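Late entry, evening session. Most of the bench is empty. Finally got around to the prediction I had been postponing all week. Sequence below, unchanged from the version circulated by S.P.
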Amino acid sequence: MKIQMVDLRSQYEKIKDEIDAAIQSVIDSSTFIKGPKVAEFELALANYLKVNHVVACGNGTDALQIALMALGLERGDEVIIPTFTYVATAEVIALLGLKPVLIDVNPITFCIDVNQIEAKITSNTKAIIPVHLFGQSADMESILSIAHRNNLYVIEDNAQAIGACYTFSDGRVMFTGTMGDIGTTSFFPSKNLGCFGDGGALITNNQILAEKIRMICNHGQKVQYYHECVGVNSRLDTIQAAILLAKLPHLNEYNIARQQAATYYNELLKDRIEIVCPISDPKSTHVFHQYTIKLNGKLGSNRNQLKEYLKENGIPTMVYYPLPIHLQEAYQGWYSQADSFSVANELSSQVLSLPMHTQLSEEQQKFIINCITEYNRKL
């Protein structure tokens, strides 16, 4: 079979009857916007995550923006984020007239470096957005402690780690996205729980916040045509909700399949000094939205050539992310030239994400690693 970066077709084929029936039920009802399947999915996801409230919205980027709006942040307020992340995390902050404050990342987990956060807190700092990158949790116990000491909100960007769990030092275990004031997630098709278009959700245990979030998603209204606050139009359409409702019971199965594929990659790559496999934080499970290796030595300095070689052999790969936020043209001037982002700079030039999905076979994985080995021998 052709190697896919993400094999959505094969995943669909395994539950085709369930998905087709879900879509047909919405067509039959013709309730395409705000149909009953939306509320049903919100409740099902809340039950899965063991959280009080889930509010579905149009996409993961909207979820981040709505979270900031719900917390009442004002123009000029500062929000701390990692610089090694997808641009959406910074984008919504800038769009609202807030200031993104960039922090380097941990060289092991690639999540925000908690040891650098407090030095960046000022009287204008109002929130921290940790990103649970590539499928595992940021160090939430430390982040929540810092936030509590400094009276800051915590918004979890959980677009890549739905279903991952974090264990606190007192033994409590919580899903990513449920520990801060608000969690956000994306249902982009390639996510561990993905729909067939755009979709997102906000997660909270706070009823007052949940009510405000729901209003903001719906033009700032509880009652039609009576607008209590400035809002947006951000809805998960009913067909996408029905698809997600059909797929949610399979989420654990999907995450286990990814974990098994990651374990086999690790086995194939053990004792390879030129390749650093993803390292899991002992406090977090890893659901491997991406399987991202770090290339050392000659292999690292020839990352782009390796990528092209693999492409020629029918192997797709991706670089997440070739430019950290602080090097993006749109975000110049948002940080001090004295800031050091040495880890993010190194990662952006040396990371490579290999194919990772629920239908990946061991034969395909062997072929991928053999091709990397073959290229490395030529250097």
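Two things to note before I forget:
The chain has a mean pLDDT of 97.
The CA atoms of residues 21 and 66 lie 32 Å apart.
Will write this up properly tomorrow.
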